[in-house]
Specification:
Layout lengths: L1 H21 L13 E5 L4 H12 L3 E5 L3 H14 L3 E4 L7 H15 L4 E4 L14 H29 L2 E7 L10 H23 L5 E7 L5 H7 L10 H13 L4 E4 L3 H7 L2 H13 L2 H4 L3
Parallel strand pairs: 1-2, 1-4, 2-3, 4-5, 5-6, 6-7
Helix pairs in contact: 2-3, 2-8, 4-5, 5-6
Bound molecules: 2-acetamido-2-deoxy-beta-D-glucopyranose.
2-acetamido-2-deoxy-beta-D-glucopyranose (NAG) binds next to loops.
Length: about 290
Amino acid sequence: MAFLKKFLLPILMVFLAYYYYSSHDEFRPEMLQGKKVIVTGASKGIGREMAYHLAKMGAHVVLTARSEEALQKVVTRCLDLGAASAHHIAGNMEDMTFAEEFVVEAGKLMGGLDMLILNHVLYVPLGFFHDDINIVRRSMEINFYSFVVLSITALPMLKQSKGSIAVVSSVAGKVSHPLIAPYSASKFALDGFFSSLRSEFLVNRVNVSITLCVLGLVDTETAMKATSGIYTGYAAPKEECALEIIKGTVLRQDELYYDRSMWTTFLLGNPGRKIIEFITTKKIKWDKIIGN
Ligand SMILES: *[C@@H]1O[C@H](CO)[C@@H](O)[C@H](O)[C@H]1NC(C)=O
């Protein structure tokens, strides 16, 4: 009982206060009606589920992935589900020229852009890291660098629409994870880059929201194949995960945690980081930087 009073109750209070103060507007599916949305990695898994949700909500979508054939099927289904329009452009996110051209083309197809959902990822089987330097480079290029290229190319359109970027990441982008070192590194990089960019946007009054989506294990075919027989954790449903990403992004949340364990959300909240970030920002002489 003493333990309860001393630790558990204060922790619970902080937790509830955090939730109370970070709660935003209520989500309504109409918020996506007629919105112009890009989804990458949309041929399967969470990306495909996001495309279907967006279609049901009446959004315009431009989808990308490597497989033309798979994308074509997703587009057809999106149109059946009620998408305002649905297009696809197949290509490889290892090719940065493609990444740039894709955003420009997508913008032309929809006549602008409201939401950029960055979701594609390099598939790497679980295993100890030995000497495969090439996998590190490819993970950084596909999982990180292409996200930067896509965002920067889309930024003029997003500034105009006061739009949003969703950066799909992972718990492995917040805490270390054995057997997926290159993946984890690339997901950590997303946090460093996009969280810094978000605070620059705040200073420069760029009204483009960035939502970092921190996902636990989700029951996509790829994740199930990779973890089968190796990892014993619970896998959350991809349909619900996809919806949570859309909700958090349209509500302009900074971060979104999707994991079955309440503890993940609570423990990763990291108030220490927020305090240090606040203090660091205060120490910068902004007037010496802005306008240079
Ligand atoms: C930023 O844009 C959103 C969406 O249009 C709007 O709701 C919000 O008030 C804007 N914020 C600022 C600080 O202008």
